[in-house]
Every structure is written in structure tokens, then in C-alpha cells.
Amino acid sequence: MHRTRVGASIGYLGDRLRLFERLLLWPALALLAFGLAGCAARMGPSTIPKARFNYNDKIANSQNDQLLLNLVRLRYRDTPVFLDVGTVIAQYTLDARAGAAGRLNPDGGARSELGLDIGGSYSEQPTITYEPLKGTDFTRRLLTPLSPVNIILLSESGWSIERLLLCCVERINDIKNAPSASGPTPSRFPDNEAFRELAGLMRELQSAGLLEFQSFVDGETRTARLHIDRPAAGDPIEATARRVREILGLGDQPEVFELTGRGLDRRSDQIAIKGRSLLGALFFLSNGVAAPNAHMEQGLVTVTQGQTDERAGWEAVTGGLLKVAAAPSSPSQAFVRIRYRDHWFYIADSDLESKATFNLLTYLFSLQAAIGEGGGPTLTVPVGR
Question: What is the pLDDT of residue 167?
Fold first, then answer.
């Protein structure tokens, strides 16, 4: 009798367990399946914040790397290549499945069987379109002289007129800004001392609020003017304003001067400005790339004559706008760095002057893109398929 009661108790417990399976396990599986389906439905919106910022970060870094790489290439007289990222399309797929199969015996006579099937897969398929800069687009963006109007727009948005003039302008009236440096590194240092003095003085007037550029539309043509205010008598800045007029050969009467590209037949109330091309600006600034001594000894770069310290000589010509250092190993504190010819070339993260000039170049690329018509041939690459 005692054994019968024990057996009955065990059978009763088995019935309860099977009842538990029917009442709880199957609904739990159903909830799991619905949960996976809900995750798949919400996956699209959830990918936007992470994917957007990840792509933004990578594209920005690659653009910086490409710009620095081409500056270094120009220093070595190698061919620059520009490849724009046209479009980025990312497709996300999440497949989820959950199922169960089994056999329950309500009489408790046979053992219940239960099988579970839970799985899923996730995939990302980005398609990136690259646009090589070549042909007509290359000519318009890199070889067209920078417009004085665009230079003024940058000045009006807070950029230093000194940086803009040294980087973007090849001549103001009869004052030249190292035109020989708008191409491959010359064999002798150009003389742009007067231009550098003028740019520095104009920056002083700009900081004092006495120099202002104005752009306006005259009919269908956008033109620009330069207003040089007269300081109060006895003001220390008065000598600066007088020196600017002296260097430019301006008369004493006008305060507003029209900016023109005509250098030979300009009127007394006009200032002639000849902008560099964007490629010329890149060549000019590429002289700030410090090549390793071994490369200079091997004749891989032009060694400019006329100064004891070549780097100091070019820093004087460019005003120290951009300094690119070289190192045999990867630098730890770098704003941007690339590896080229078995060396690392980089801009130090603490070099705010060089970083500002580097950012200016990226804005100039965007401004020059506005003058192009149409696009060049495209190359579409499916990634990771």
C-alpha cells in the first residue's frame, strides 16, 4: 500500500508538469515569436542615429586624409587624385524566426516530446558611389581662379583676411604673392614680403572694425567692394590705414573701392585682385610639408635655394599657414595623418593655425564645386556583398 501511494504521487506530479507545459511554455513561445517580429519592425528607425553618425565620421575622416595625401603628393611632384563620395545607400535586413513542435499526452501514459526552433540573421549592405574629379569638372574646380566674391563671403563669415589673402590671392594691384609658388616647388624662394606686410596690416584694420568687404548684385552680376574707414585723428591705427593705402597706391579721397579682376586699366577707385586657382593654393601650401632629410638627399623633393633653413624659409613665405610634419612612426596626437613613402605625414592636433588653414581648404573645395556643371563619370561599388 505504501508503494502504491508513492507511485500515484509521482504520476500526479507528472500530470502537473505536463499541464505546466501546456499552460505556460506554449504561450511563452508565442510571446517570443511576437517579440522577435517586433524587434524586426523597429530595426529601421533604430539604425538611423548610429549609422548616420558612423558614416558621417568616416566620410569626414577620409576627406581629411585625401586632402592631406594630395598636399604631400604635390610636395613630391606626384599626381594628385581626388575622389568624391557621391551617395551612400545602406540596406539593413533582419530575419527572425521562432517555432515549436512537440507531442503532449494528456493521459500521462507516454512521455511528452517538445522541439524548439529559434534563430535569426542580420545583414547590412551599403552601396557607395564615388565620383572621380577629372575632365571638365577637374578644370572648373581646381584650375578656375578663386573668385574675389567667394573670398569676401568667407571674410564676412569671420575668416581672417590675412589668411584668405595669403592662401587665395596671387596679386593685389601690383603687389604679388609668390606667383611662382602656385605650381611645383620653385628652385629659389619667391619674395612676397610686401604682400605679407599688406595682409597683416589689413588684418589689423579688420580687427579694429575699419575694414569691411561688401558683396552685392549689380544686374545679373555679383560684384564686391572694399570699405576702408578713416580712423580718428591721433588713433594709433591711423598709421596702419595710411600704410595700407600707400602699399596699394590708393588716393586719399575714396573710402569705398570696387574690386575688379582687371589689373591694367583699373580706375583710381578700384582695387584689382587676382585669385589663385584652388590647385595653385594647394601647391602654395604644399611647401609647408616637411620632407624627411633622407628624401631630400635622394632628390625626391625640390630643395629650394636661398635660405640656410629651407623649412624656415617657406614658413616665412607662406606665413606659417600650414605645417605638415613627417615621422618614421605613427604620431599619437595628430589632427590628421597619412602614410606615404614609408613615412607618416601629419598635422599636430595642437597646431590650431594649420588646422584652421586645412579647414579653409575644405570650404574652398565646396565653394568651387558650385561653379561646376554636371558631374563626371561615377563608379559604384557594392561593399561587403
Answer: 95
Instruction: State mean pLDDT over 279-300.
Output: 95
Q: How far apart are CA 109 and CA 96, in angstroms?
A: 36
**Range from 13-22, 74-83, 308-317 that averages highest in pLDDT:** 74-83
Residue 276 CA to residue 306 CA, distance in Å, equals 24
Going by C-alpha positions, the residue among 243, 71, 60 that lies closest to residue 228 is: 243
Q: Give burial (CB, 10 Å; 0-12/13-18/19+) of 218.
A: exposed
Provide the b/e sequence for 122-133 (b: ≥16 CB within 10 Å). Answer: eeeebebeebeb
Which H/E stretch holds residue 274? strand 270-275
**Residue boundaries of the structural domains of the chain:** 135-382
In angstroms, the CA 133 to CA 212 distance is 35
Task: In whole angstroms, give the CA distance from residue 192 to residue 314.
Answer: 11
Q: What's the whole-number mean pLDDT along residues 152-179?
A: 92
What secondary structure does DSSP assign to 139-192, as a single string? IIIIISBPPHHHHHHHHHTT--HHHHHHHHEEEETTEE--GGGGSSPPSB----
Quick one: pLDDT band at residue 199, thresholds 50, 70, 90?
Answer: very high
Between CA 282 and CA 167 the distance in angstroms is 9
* Dihedral angle, C-alpha 59, 64, 67, 69, nearest 10 °: -100
Tens of pLDDT, residue by residue over 342-381, are 999 999 999 999 999 999 999 998 888 776 444 444 444 4
Helix axes 352-369, 161-168, angle to 10 degrees: 60
